[in-house]
From TrEMBL:
Origin species: Mikania micrantha
Domain HAT C-terminal dimerisation: 126-185
Highest rank taxon of the organism: Eukaryota
Signal peptide bounds: none
Protein name per its UniProtKB record: HAT C-terminal dimerisation domain-containing protein
Gene Ontology terms, MF aspect: protein dimerization activity
């Protein structure tokens, strides 16, 4: 292990006089560690927009020892308006307050360190029906990684399908082709004969397929 207080000399570039004060510690901390963090932060910022980051930040309260009721209600109002009406949000607030009290007295619920563990704990303790709105919020949040991955795969597949030679295909045809390509593991289970029979039954044909 090098002496972190010793002057650092680059083996790739010719050293300059003003670089003589740079130590190994400064090099690894600034040029290596901080540069790596900057690249990772840039990648995360380009992958997740502000809404996604806010959604993840608000949902992190579910994994804490005490759920922030105001944060979860704000999350539901802003991002899931079609899944919760005004009455549901009011009941959700009451359920979250009661859940915080019961969670502090229940070792199985308090032992959940992640949102997925909390979802499993609700099922194991048979509290899913009691706190059905809390369970709904958790399950909606747990679908975020799947939704993000599916969206990314969709954009990647679109670059393959809609190229210069196929730029005039209709939206319906493009959507159907993308579904088959993205979900190709499921599509491989379909039999060609069953697809032909289904297509034939949709409309009467003059000739047999």
């Amino acid at each position: 292990m090098p002496d972190m207080t010793a002057p650092y000399t680059s083996t790739r570039y010719r050293p300059r006089k003003k670089d003589l004060h740079v130590t190994f510690g400064h090099y690894y901390r600034v040029d290596v560690f901080n540069s790596t963090l900057d690249k990772q932060l840039h990648e995360l910022n380009s992958r997740f927009n502000e809404d996604a980051m806010e959604l993840l930040s608000l949902s992190s309260s579910l994994a804490s020892k005490e759920i922030n009721v105001d944060q979860i209600c704000l999350l539901v109002e802003k991002y899931y308006p079609t899944d919760f009406n005004d009455q549901d949000i009011t009941h959700l607030r009451y359920q979250l307050e009661l859940f915080n009290i019961e969670r502090s007295n229940n070792t199985k619920l308090s032992g959940a360190s992640t949102i997925s563990d909390l979802c499993k704990s609700l099922v194991d303790t048979k509290k899913r029906e009691t706190y059905y709105l809390v369970d709904r919020v958790i399950r909606l949040i747990l679908t975020l990684p799947v939704s993000t991955a599916t969206t990314e795969r969709g954009f990647s597949a679109m670059k393959i399908f809609k190229n210069r030679l196929r730029n005039k295909m209709s939206d319906d045809y493009l959507a159907n082709s993308l579904v088959i390509y993205i979900e190709k593991e499921i599509a491989e289970n379909f039999d060609s004969e069953s697809i032909i029979d289904e297509f034939k039954n949709l409309k009467g044909r003059r000739a047999e397929l």
